[in-house]
Amino acid sequence: MSNITWSFADRVVAITGSAIGMGEGAVETFAAAGASVYGLDVDAKRGRAVAERTGSTFVECDVTSSAAVLAAFEQIATRHQRLDVLINNAGGFWEQNTTESISEIEWDHVIDLNLKGVFLCARHAIPLLRQSSAGRIITISSLAGQTAIYQSSPAYAAAKAGVLSLTRVLASELGADGITSNAIAPSAVLTERIKVVRSAEERAATAASIPLGRYGGVDDLVTWMMFLASEEGGYMTGETIAVNGGRFMS
Ligand SMILES: NC(=O)c1ccc[n+]([C@@H]2O[C@H](COP(=O)([O-])OP(=O)(O)OC[C@H]3O[C@@H](n4cnc5c(N)ncnc54)[C@H](O)[C@@H]3O)[C@@H](O)[C@H]2O)c1
Questions:
Q1: Which of 23, 37, 50, 149 has minimal Cβ neighbours within 10 Å of its Cβ?
Q2: Is 140 a pocket residue for ligand 1 (Cβ < 6 Å)?
């Protein structure tokens, strides 16, 4: 859990992809900072366990389903009549492939999760964010959306680039409402999933390619989520923060 000491008492925070990884870390940290946290995930078993442990609320929700996303934000509206922070964290891909090898089904699936899911959550959150004194949208992109990297997926790269553009569009549309929209682009973060899908040799090679010499930890990312969510971070919008140990410098 991040050691940052900002208070989020009385703030209402929705975090997608809350069951594991960075989303789980964000739920833990925002809940410990006093926020009313809503974790949205398709993995009900793990999501509920995280919620019980952290005193947050779990909402079973597939972010690619308009009806499910609408129902999730209606639940928040009924209880709080507003939302202060939306963290679009759910994302990922299943197969490393190329433009030649990716199936159309996989393409659609990855685009739906990483791009459409962000659109749907933002669309249904906006009316509630307008009721906040300092609304915040934070979207987790990727190094893969900033530059071409190997060991990735063309659909994932396209979607993660797409959310950077959507981040700027939202910033432009919502600035007059005092709502900021920013993105975080991690590179390699040592989550449970990465420990399973990357061998020790692969992880060592990746770490060696990073100027700071190591994978990011979940807390390295959650710290930036907290800053962007804070009232103090309120005069920056439409930006992408590369939290990547120096692996890619633009
Ligand atoms: N881990 C990394 O190295 C890394 C690097 C760059 C970017 N990212 C991005 O950071 C974010 C978090 O990554 P992570 O590694 O912690 O992810 P993870 O794979 O560990 O967890 C993703 C979570 O999203 C949930 N999820 C999947 N599909 C969903 C859906 N349709 N609706 C709702 N929830 C769904 C999963 O159940 C899971 O709880 C993702 O957007 C990912 O693309 C991760």
A1: 149
A2: yes
